[in-house]
């Protein structure tokens, strides 16, 4: 299934999730994440820290490795993802999660074709985190340190591929917090990996 109205730029895609002020600053609820769209910030463009503004000032929060999240943080993160999967965008035939996935798939030549890789994905993950924070403003996008699993005889035996985290490791995910998803974007990552890198 393809987008009926395909966003052609990340900013247009972002428009489905939040609003922009006339000066180009992102306007979100009470959370501001790095990277910021402002070029006048004195903070680094990319950072593992995020700032959250509240009524009592600002506090810095550290992004965590997925396995280091508390049970509540992990449950909130997984629920926010599932809430995106259930939230449809009026101008698009897909839910918000699938619209983000479709945008990634449709721009893969640009996103993977050279020097744009890091910058494009940094901005893409920023958009994804903003979308998650629409569902729960306390959710921070965790990272996965795959080097922790690389020395395993069978890396797919990692706890990441269990019901507590991402579900089963092979083919379509059928267990865990995302096991009941209906697939909207038809693309086999496993087939791609086997074809290009072997099993």
Automatic annotation (TrEMBL):
SUPFAM superfamilies linked to this entry: Di-copper centre-containing domain
Record's keyword annotation contains Nucleotidyltransferase: no
Sequence segments annotated as region (Disordered): 28-71
Record key words, sorted: Copper, Metal-binding
Transmembrane segments: none
Biased composition (Low complexity): 47-60
Biased segments, Polar residues type: 28-46
Molecular function via GO: metal ion binding; oxidoreductase activity
InterPro entries: Di-copper_centre_dom_sf, Tyrosinase/Hemocyanin, Tyrosinase_Cu-bd
Annotated Tyrosinase copper-binding domain residues: 95-186
Keyword DNA-binding: no
PANTHER family in alphabetical order: TYROSINASE FAMILY MEMBER, TYROSINASE-LIKE PROTEIN TYR-1-RELATED
Name this polypeptide is given: Tyrosinase copper-binding domain-containing protein
Gene source species: Mytilus galloprovincialis (Mediterranean mussel)
């Amino acid at each position: 299934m393809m987008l009926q109205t395909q966003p052609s730029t990340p900013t247009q895609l972002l428009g489905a999730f939040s609003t922009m002020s006339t000066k180009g600053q992102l306007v979100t609820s009470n959370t501001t994440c790095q990277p910021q769209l402002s070029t006048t910030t004195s903070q680094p463009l990319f950072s593992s820290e995020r700032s959250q503004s509240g009524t009592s000032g600002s506090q810095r929060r550290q992004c965590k490795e997925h396995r280091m999240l508390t049970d509540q943080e992990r449950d909130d993160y997984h629920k926010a993802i599932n809430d995106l999967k259930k939230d449809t965008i009026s101008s698009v035939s897909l839910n918000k999660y699938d619209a983000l996935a479709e945008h990634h798939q449709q721009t893969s030549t640009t996103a993977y074709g050279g020097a744009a890789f890091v910058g494009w994905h940094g901005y893409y993950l920023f958009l994804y985190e903003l979308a998650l924070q629409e569902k729960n403003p306390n959710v921070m996008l965790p990272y996965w340190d795959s080097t922790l699993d690389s020395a395993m005889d069978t890396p797919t035996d990692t706890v990441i591929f269990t019901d507590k985290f991402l579900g089963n490791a092979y083919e379509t995910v059928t267990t865990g917090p995302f096991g009941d998803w209906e697939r909207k974007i038809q693309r086999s990552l496993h087939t791609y990996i086997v074809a290009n890198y072997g099993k």
